[in-house]
Write a structure and sequence with these properties.
This protein is an alpha/beta fold. The chain has a single domain, classed as P-loop containing nucleotide triphosphate hydrolases (Rossmann fold, 3-Layer(aba) Sandwich). Helix content is 40%, strand content 26%. The protein contains 12 helices and 10 strands. It has a 6-stranded mixed sheet with strand order 6-7-8-3-9-10, with helices on both faces. β4 and β5 form a beta hairpin. The two termini are 37 Å apart. Bound molecules: adenosine-5'-triphosphate (ATP). Adenosine-5'-triphosphate binds next to β1, β2 and α1.
Length: 270
């Protein structure tokens, strides 16, 4: 096992928009580096406005996109060497995504309990000690729900907040070491956001899971994160301890973000 859980090493991603010859190059992520230590679970926020490259960076961490240059290693394994279906499944055991819109994460025609049982079957090697009902119920309990509550229900029969909890329970069935959550609360009612964000703290403290929290929302990032990076136009402009950076931002862009966030919402998050 490596001393590092995740190593993002001088990673860049360039897209070509339009035709191959006539297209314009878009540098979505530029030379980004950071590390998460193994055995020291933390909430690491990637902050930036729309178009700053957060999603592209998180997709590379999830091995959905490949970098144009640079390297990503998870648990010592270079993500570029993950090629077979078996390798991919092994990676997904350890790294799980949570997406912005929980309603898009689930097939609307499939019952939620069936979805969770399917996921359990897929990752059964991760936790073969429990019968499917018990494993699914246990995962749901970790997010404040139960199998009884979601049984026989379809995604549209739950609130966005409840469904995002189910998405987190589904991620937990894989027994991951890292969850990459891309704007996980932005589509959820403001009143429920803090409960999801608090859940991340519980996953970190009680289950030892590290969380990469991708957001444009400084208030929740301030409230929940241990460390942050602030991205502008693909580059990291500031990084460090979340409270230190957000209390006294040094870079003009970080200051600008903080000033823009000094709205009632931000104050409420402090
Ligand atoms: N598949 C793609 N093809 C071309 N350009 C892309 C692609 N994906 C992202 N981009 C561009 O890369 C830049 C960074 O986008 P990205 O989605 O990573 O930013 P973001 O900070 O996550 O923004 P948002 O919060 O709006 O999703 C943007 O200019 C975007 O238009």
């Amino acid at each position: 096992m490596s001393d590092l859980l995740l190593e993002v090493c001088q990673v860049s991603k360039t897209f070509i928009r339009g035709g191959v010859l006539t297209g314009r190059r878009v540098a979505a992520v530029k030379d980004v580096s950071f590390r998460l230590a193994a055995g020291r679970p933390e909430i690491f926020a990637i902050i930036g406005e729309s178009g700053s490259g957060k999603t592209t960076l998180s997709r590379m961490i999830l091995n959905i996109d490949t970098p144009t240059s640079g390297k990503l290693r998870f648990d010592g394994v270079d993500l570029a060497t993950i090629r077979t279906a078996g390798d991919r499944l092994a990676f997904m055991h350890k790294v799980q995504p949570i997406f912005q819109n929980p309603f898009e994460s689930f097939n609307p025609l499939k019952r939620i309990d069936r979805y969770l049982f399917m996921t359990h079957r897929r990752f059964i090697a991760a936790d073969g000690r429990l019968a499917p009902e018990m494993a699914v119920d246990e995962a749901l309990h970790k997010v404040g729900l139960s199998l009884k509550e979601v049984s026989r229900r379809y995604p549209h029969e739950l609130s966005g907040g409840q469904l995002q909890r189910v998405a987190i329970a589904r991620a937990l069935l894989a027994n991951p070491k890292l969850i990459v959550a891309d704007e996980p609360v932005s589509m959820i009612d403001a009143s429920l956001r803090i409960s999801i964000v608090n859940l991340f703290k519980t996953l970190r403290d009680d289950l030892g899971i590290s969380i990469i929290y991708v957001t444009h929302d400084l208030a929740t990032a301030y409230y929940v994160s241990d460390r942050i990076i602030i991205m502008q136009q693909g580059s990291v402009v500031e990084s460090g301890d979340a409270r230190a950076v957000l209390n006294a931002p040094q870079h003009p862009y970080s200051r600008q973000l903080r000033e823009a966030a000094l709205l009632p919402d931000f104050a409420a998050g402090l």
